[in-house]
Specification:
Layout: H1 9-18, H2 23-35, H3 49-58, E1 65-71, E2 75-81, E3 87-96, H4 105-111, E4 113-120, E5 123-125, E6 140-143, H5 146-164, E7 177-180, H6 190-201, E8 213-217, H7 221-229, E9 235-239, H8 245-251, H9 260-274, E10 278-284, H10 292-302, E11 307-313, H11 327-339, E12 343-347, H12 363-367
Parallel strand pairs: 4-7, 7-8, 8-9, 9-10, 10-11, 11-12
Antiparallel strand pairs: 1-2, 2-3, 3-4, 5-6
Length: 369
């Protein structure tokens, strides 16, 4: 049986009460984990050696084990092993200035780092089986717990600290943006995702801004209704991928039950409740989703809605027989949208080399089968 997690408020409070540990020590533990970004007890030198030794007998700091790390210049991809032997993934993305100062290489790494995003998993595999996505080919093993979700962020912050150390104001660098986008459908694991967001936003925990936490969903209508009811006003990204119901059903089987008209109605309710702009992810697949008539259909769907479209070139994968649209076609699609006053961005796919781009997560696990 696995140990309780050290950042579990109930478990550590019970332990402190039984062992007559003063409340300020508990606060100290949380500060070390969440603020000082330490994920090993021997790093928490503000605690006595005896207390650290006793805590190690009774608790784990993480509920995941780091299995492997792979890096390129723009990302760090982390494979985690769960207590029951499954592999999940998270990816740290380093956003750098497009206009770097002419400085030394090492100094450039620090001064031109604009922000850091972490894409995290909320499930092991994915039940949606979208046509273009490798992760769905793993199918679904189970949902992740709150502690498994938060453990991904704690590991990422520790990696960031060791990689970049402190900012110019001497505060530690850390993940600024968290996106539920990897192994996947967060709204089908609603309760644990909600619990994890509470820890992300808490000032004495990860202290993230609501504007810097994004739930990316294929459009689970009941899940969006729960977000409205529970007043979870984080950012929402919809994997729309096509504004044509028939084509969307072929790409995303979930669209057969989560109809586009019904989805847009509940999104309108969410916008009314939160006043948040919705981000719509749109995959550009050659000769399937990139046709001019589909751009016009998308523009008509989003007309007079608080919306921003991200056009994402399909990330080619040897396991799936689809082709990405040409940059010329993508720019023409963008032009149609912009002429109809839809704000749109062409998303870069810069981290393909480590299979960290959209719809590539789980590639290694599927290949090894």
């Amino acid at each position: 049986m696995s140990k309780p997690i050290l950042f579990d408020q109930v478990a550590i409070n019970d332990y402190a009460k039984k062992n007559k540990i003063q409340p300020f020590r508990v606060k100290q533990i949380f500060y070390e984990i969440f603020k000082n970004q330490n994920i090993k007890l021997d790093e928490i030198t503000t605690l006595s050696k005896d207390l650290r030794s006793d805590l190690e007998k009774h608790f784990d700091i993480l509920s995941l084990e780091i299995n492997e790390i792979l890096e390129d210049s723009q990302t760090t991809k982390i494979w985690f092993k769960t207590h029951d032997g499954h592999i999940i993934e998270a990816v740290i993305i380093y956003h750098r200035s497009k206009y770097p100062k002419p400085l030394t290489k090492d100094y450039w790494l620090l001064t031109n780092l604009n922000r850091i995003t972490l894409c995290i998993s909320s499930q092991i595999g994915c039940p949606l089986n979208c046509l273009f996505c490798v992760t769905g080919k793993m199918w679904i093993k189970r949902n992740l717990t709150r502690d498994e979700i938060i453990s991904q962020i704690l590991v990422a912050n520790n990696i960031v600290k060791n990689k970049f150390w402190k900012k110019e104001d001497w505060t530690l660098r850390a993940v600024r943006n968290v996106v539920f986008m990897w192994m996947w459908e967060p709204l089908l694991n609603y309760d644990e995702v909600k619990k994890s967001i509470e820890i992300m936003l808490a000032q004495d925990r990860l202290s993230l801004s609501r504007r810097h936490v994004t739930i990316s969903t294929a459009g689970i209508i009941d899940g969006i209704k729960k977000l409205i009811k529970d007043k979870i006003e984080v950012k929402l990204a919809i994997s729309l991928h096509c504004a044509d119901q028939e084509i969307r059903e072929k790409l995303m089987p979930i669209a057969k039950t989560q109809k586009l008209n019904d989805l847009m109605k509940v999104i309108d309710e969410y916008v009314k409740a939160t006043d948040n702009r919705i981000f719509y992810e749109y995959i550009m697949i050659k000769d399937i989703t990139d046709k001019p008539e589909l751009a016009n259909k998308l523009a008509n769907l989003l007309k007079n809605r608080l919306a921003h479209v991200n056009l994402i070139a399909y990330n080619k994968n040897p396991m799936i027989n689809l082709q990405e649209s040409s940059i010329k076609t993508i720019r023409e699609f963008q032009d149609i949208l912009e002429k109809k006053w839809i704000t749109v961005t062409i998303r870069d796919s810069m981290w393909r080399s480590v299979k960290s781009s959209c719809w590539q997560l789980g590639y290694e696990a599927v290949v090894r089968k």
